[in-house]
Structure formats: C-alpha cells, structure tokens
Write a structure and sequence with these properties.
This protein is mainly α. The protein is built from 14 helices and 6 strands.
Length: 341
C-alpha cells in the first residue's frame, strides 16, 4: 500500500470519527424529541438514568435514550435526579431536561383527584371537597355569592340572573386540584371546564331558541334528577317544555327534593303544598334556578328535546331505569295505581 493511500484512508477515518463525534454532540446538546408542547413527566423514587431515559424516549421528549445516558454519565448527574412530577417542554434539550429534573423548584405540587357525578348539588360537591382535604365550606360560600371578578371573567355567566347562585354552572367531571388549591382556584377550574363543554354552537342554538344558558341549565338539572337514560332525558325534556308552553305546572319531584332538602321515593300531598319558589307543583314554569349540576347529556337534551304526545311520566319504583309515559291524566293515574304510587 502506497503512502498516499495510507494517508487517504487515515484522513477518511478521521473525517468519519469527527463526523460521528459532531453528530453525537449535536444529538446530546441540540436535539429534542418530536413532542413540541408541555407534557407531565414523573420521576419515581428509585429510578435511575436508564429508566428515566427510557421513559423520556417513550414520551417522545428526547431523540434517543443513548444520548441521554451518555450526557448523564459524562456529567455524573445520575445521583441528582429528584423523584416527583414535572411539566417538561417538548423543545427542551437533553442538558436542559437533566438540569430541570435535578432542581427541587421544578417539582409540581401534589395533586388530588376529585370526581363530581352528574346531578350533584353544589352542597354535595362542597362536602366531597371537604372529605378530600379542601375548604369545602368556603367553596360553597363563593358558589352562593360569587365575587364580581369571577362573574366578569367567565362569559358563560354574563346573562346569569343577578340573584342566582352558581348552582348548575359547576360542570360534573373528574378534576385534578393541587393540594394547596384555594376555594376560588377550584371554582375557576370548574367554571373553565363549563366554558369548554358548552360550545359556541350550543350557545348559538340557545340564542336561536330565544332561551338563555341559565334556562337550559335549569331544565337540564331537573332531567338529571328525574330520569337516568339519554333517551328518557330527551323525552322528559320534551314533556317539560310542552307543559311550560301550554301552561301546565311541571310537577317535578326534583324540585320538591331541592325545596325539602331530602329525596323521597314518594312525596305526600302535604309535601306538594310546601311554600317554596322551587315547588313546581304549586308554581308554573321553571323553578328559580338549577336544582343540581347537569352533565353534557342532559344539557343537550334540554336544548334538543324529543317531541312526543306524552304529557305525564313516572318512574317504576322497582326499576329506576324504567320510565312509564302517559298521554292523559287518566292514563297517568292508572299507571300510578299499577306501580303502587
């Protein structure tokens, strides 16, 4: 082999080595994963750089776990990782991520998961918050008398009657609240969810029907407490809107339960005479406001009712999912006798 050939091979070898070095250097110090937004990432106690690097790659936050291992080894950072939950930006490089995961200040506060079922009242939600370690009593106070700053911040509340509470506006869902969340912070997170769930299209349809969000939420709150299936939501919604239109009282047991503060299998004649604006046996039209916090299915049913010939309905006491409908008062009375009501 000639000297010139040896020199050429040596140069090629050096170029390959240099190219490889710069490629690896670039992957470590300048590359990032394909995910471009913020993402929650957790370092579990006992995990080392191998597990952390693999998890970062799985979450698409780094280009390759080998480059992560190499940087951690080179900088002796393996023992510096702190267990906890972090919010990592997808544009961060490996050195930035390593520094981020070794800084106590970047650990997110602990979160508490709280689920509010459809049809719960604000009082029930407050009680659950208390059970989860939050200040449920103060939360309920804000719901019943919200500050102007909250009323002005959320467009969904702009046409809420001045004296009405936020009952009905608290969208039932599963939430994650930081352990140090304030009652006002909790309320804002819930209302923000309500804003998202009641879409612009739904609001436009409400306007088109010459109704208000408040009226739709009020109707939906009755449906949550009266029946249980999506099909029945729509049929009962049609019955209630029809009764309002022709001047018949709603005679909703859901409103009696709200007025009396208790649920009963069957309400007495005396119960139906209670003096309360929520007594829809005594007063026609919708009650003064929602009696629960409705979910999306009942809100949609209140907005898009099903038209039928029915004017009455009852729930089978032995099967809550069985709703019995009647077209006439006489037929309704016969059904009540049949089902022992």
């Amino acid at each position: 082999m000639t000297m010139r050939r040896k020199i050429s091979i040596a140069i090629i070898f050096l170029v390959v080595i240099a190219g490889g070095f710069f490629y690896v250097y670039n992957q470590i110090y300048f590359s990032h994963g394909n995910y471009r937004e913020n993402k929650n990432f957790e370092v579990i106690k006992g995990e080392g750089s191998t597990e952390i690097g693999s998890n970062l790659k799985k979450e698409d936050l780094i280009s390759g776990k080998f480059y992560f291992y190499l940087y951690v080894w080179k900088n002796d950072s393996a023992k510096g990782f702190l267990p906890g939950k972090y919010e990592i930006n997808g544009n961060m490089t490996i050195p930035e991520i390593v520094r981020f995961l070794t800084d106590q200040e970047n650990i997110l506060p602990g979160y508490v998961t709280v689920t509010f079922p459809e049809g719960w009242t604000a009082k029930q939600m407050a009680e659950r918050l208390t059970a989860k370690g939050f200040d449920g009593e103060s939360f309920l106070k804000i719901v019943n008398d919200p500050p102007q700053s909250i009323l002005d911040f959320f467009p969904i509340l702009t046409k809420k009657p001045a004296k009405a509470t936020l009952e009905g506006y608290l969208f039932p869902d599963t939430y994650k609240f930081s352990k140090d969340a304030t009652p006002e912070g909790i309320l804002k997170k819930i209302l923000n969810n309500t804003e998202l769930k009641i879409s612009e299209g739904m609001r436009a349809e409400i306007e088109n029907q010459k109704k208000s969000v408040f009226e739709i939420l009020t109707m939906a709150s009755l449906l949550e407490r009266e029946v249980t299936t999506p099909e029945d939501f729509k049929i009962v919604s049609g019955i209630f809107w029809k009764r309002i239109k022709i001047g018949l009282a709603l005679q909703s047991c859901a409103t009696l339960a709200y007025a009396l503060g208790e649920n009963k299998k069957q309400y007495s004649l005396e119960d139906t005479q209670i003096e309360s604006p929520y007594n829809t046996y005594k007063y026609k039209g919708l009650p003064p406001g929602p009696v629960s916090n409705p979910g999306l299915a009942t809100i949609q049913a209140a907005l898009y009712p099903e038209t039928t010939d029915y004017l009455y309905f009852l729930t089978d006491p032995n099967d809550p999912k069985n709703t019995v409908y009647s077209k006439t008062f006489e037929e309704h009375n016969l059904n009540k006798q049949k089902y022992g009501l």
